[in-house]
Design brief:
Chain B: It holds the Pfam family BPD_transp_1. Chain B: InterPro entries: MetI-like, MetI-like_sf. Chain B: It is found in: Cell membrane. The complex is a heterodimer of chains A (about 475) and B (about 290). Chain A is an alpha/beta fold and about 475 residues long. Chain A has 2 domains: about 1-160 and about 345-375, Periplasmic binding protein-like II (D-Maltodextrin-Binding Protein, domain 2, 3-Layer(aba) Sandwich), CATH 3.40.190.10; about 170-340 and about 415-460, Periplasmic binding protein-like II (D-Maltodextrin-Binding Protein, domain 2, 3-Layer(aba) Sandwich), CATH 3.40.190. Helices cover about 45% and strands about 15% of the residues of chain A. Chain A has helices spanning about 1-15, 50-70, 90-100, 115-120, 125-130, 135-140, 145-150, 175-180, 190-200, 220-235, 250-265, 280-285, 300-305, 315-320, 360-370, 370-380, 390-395, 400-410, 420-435, 440-455, and strands spanning about 35-45, 75-85, 105-110, 155, 160, 160-165, 170-175, 210, 240, 245, 290-295, 320-325, 325, 340-345, 345-350, 410-415, 460. In chain A, the strands form 5 sheets. A 5-stranded mixed β-sheet of chain A has the order 2-1-3-15-6. Chain A has a 4-stranded mixed β-sheet with strand order 8-11-7-12, sandwiched between helices. Chain A has a 3-stranded mixed β-sheet with strand order 9-10-17. In chain A, helix 11 packs across helix 19 and helix 11 crosses helix 20. Chain B has a single domain (about 65-285), classed as MetI-like (MetI-like fold). In chain B, helix 5 crosses helix 9 and helix 13 (about 245-255) packs antiparallel against helix 14. With about 290 residues, chain B is mainly α. Chain B is about 75% helix and about 0% strand. The interface between A and B is large, with 39 and 35 residues.
Chain lengths: ~475, ~290
Amino acid sequence: MGRTTAFVLVAVGVLVTGCLGGTTVEDPARNADAKDVTLTIVANAVSGGKNARGADWIANWVIPRFTEAQKAKGVTMAVRFEQSGTADEAFKTKVALDFKTGGGGDVVELDGIWLGEFAQAGQVKPLDDVVGKADVDAWDGWKQIPEAVQGLGRFEGKRYGVPMGTDGRVLYYNKKLFAQAGLPADWQPRSWDELLSAAAALKALPGVTPLQLNAGTAMGEATSMQGVLPALVGTGKPVHEDGKWQGATSGVKDVLGLYQRIYRDGLGDPVLQQEANGRDRSFRLFAEDKIGILLEGDYFWRSVVEPKNGVAKMADRDAAVGWALMPAQRPGAGVGGQDFVSMSGGGVRVVNPNSRFPKQAWEFMRFLNSAEAVKASLAGTAQITQRGDVNDEVLAGDPMLSFVADKVLPITRYRPGLADYPKVSAALQQATADVVAGKSPDDAAKAYQDALVKAVGEGSVATG
Amino acid sequence: MAGLGVARAVGFVAPALLLVGVFLVFPALWTLYIGVTDYQLTGPAAAAPSAVGLDNFAAVLDDALFTNSLWLTALFVLGSAVVGQNALGFALAWLLRRVRPWLRRTTEGLVLLAWILPGPVVAYLWFAVLSRDGGTLGLLLDDPTTAWLVQYPMVSLVVFNVWRGTAFSMLLYTSALAAVPPSQLETARLVGANGWQAVRDVVFPHIRGHVLTNTLLISLWTANDFTPFLLTAGGPNHESEVLPVLIYRQALEGGRLGYASAMSSLLLVGNLVVALVYLRLLRRRA
């Protein structure tokens, strides 16, 4: 017994002296002159799977060329690429745990919306602190990145990372199914009612789910970005305004009412929204001509139904897939009096404050964001990149992405980069899950309001 | 310690004590410590957590998700372990006593296989069976529209876990039944007892201790089992969110490490209580 007691005492001693959290800033110039350098880049991309093009680009283009260039300067550079091909939430958890334990890659790709949380946790730090202000300011790439896109890499006015481009959300529709249902090939709904009436027409087709609007908790942030938030800005107010989050407001209730009309009236498949891999399934069903209308980002066009490398290839994509702007609830009822709305996000690359080689990591970042590298990352396809010079050149060839750049980006909104946002987003996802599972919009809104007050405090919640 | 000496005895025990301390005592105490803070995975409370006393515990007990999860865990343990694995394990052991050795060995081998395969592998297999995308069960029943894991999540998990864990009960009961004197079974048969009466009045008194031990072990394993996460991830809409899944989701998906630690502590206490009750029963028997 004596020994056990002693052991417990030792353990308690460790506890008392141990501390949770706490971070320090190190010298940005450490190891700046090293001749033997190892860098690791971490991304949620995997060859042959999720974001395959990005993964292949890093592995086959970036790493060989960067290593070669360093060799010419007399530096033995080894770059490791840690690939992942998992759900965004799982990737975020992995990165947070990496940072928390003082590990992780030297350059890490994050979703821009996580930046606030990581920054507040001290897990990522302003670039000025990590690699030195002079070096950061000296990069000539900044002036190529539009102001709105640069915002993705900023938190509380400080630069934390370099954005990786942006995106926009539209309604994709299957023109073959539209033709069968007697709907026009150049469709553009002007209100939620018009959207639902098109879905009602598609309902006549056997084996076809007319309209899938992401809902529920299983899809995580996809529910917010491709569901609740675009609908919500269509009611006139963004989710966060004047320092307050929208509680059980009329806008939120209207959005939940829209979900009810879709999923309780048989226009959408409620089971799909509850399955563990529902989003992948929705991709596949759309590619198999079994979903009529789907709200998705331009990622869907570039990487999902893309005929050659997509995860749910559609050989006849260019002829069969149409796109339309997401309408506001009624014409002019959208945020800022708009007729149409969208939401945007984007990734951002950060330098890990724990990196052994911060200067070299920054050099690697500059290389990753050079015009030449960004162009190579597209591999002949188009995407809205972070660089204006590259966009001017590549978007012209792709009608869908030019549409996003010309028509969607001017009307889009970004999520608030606040640490509380994920909690609010989770509460909104839960509210849609409740409606899909059969709760009334009013009850779901009430439960949402309670959850929101619990999560962010009563003073930060707007009602009415 | 006759003949060994205190120093050498300590030497022998020290490695074990060290392992227990590092991997058992320390994490348990650490969990208790985090449980009284608002520690988070990200955000301001990750950099500077503050002590919140017993607030987490109060909030957990008031959390509808926790109550829901507690109920589901009880259902899972009762359905799949206490009743399912126990009954099926005993039935298999009892029925396989008299059959031909090759049949017994084949059956035992198959049951064991379910037990020794790695969790992700069996989860994938069951996913393939229960999926509505050409899943085996859907094809067999000619019913391609039922998503079993979504529409009947708890039933699926209970059936799965019975399949998964019966091997242990079967093995334990097989060896326990070997200890029942054949002469007593013979006597029972001679005085006209039917099968059920023989089990109840002759076999059960002999294996009572085994039943209790078995039930204790499989209950604890099932209550702490994380495999349900691989099958349903707690969904749909928390309908199969047993405690380990809830704790994982709160801690890592929700980032609320302090809150989830409080839940873990409560699960730990629950395990201890169950273990104590069983030990009590065992002692009373002795």
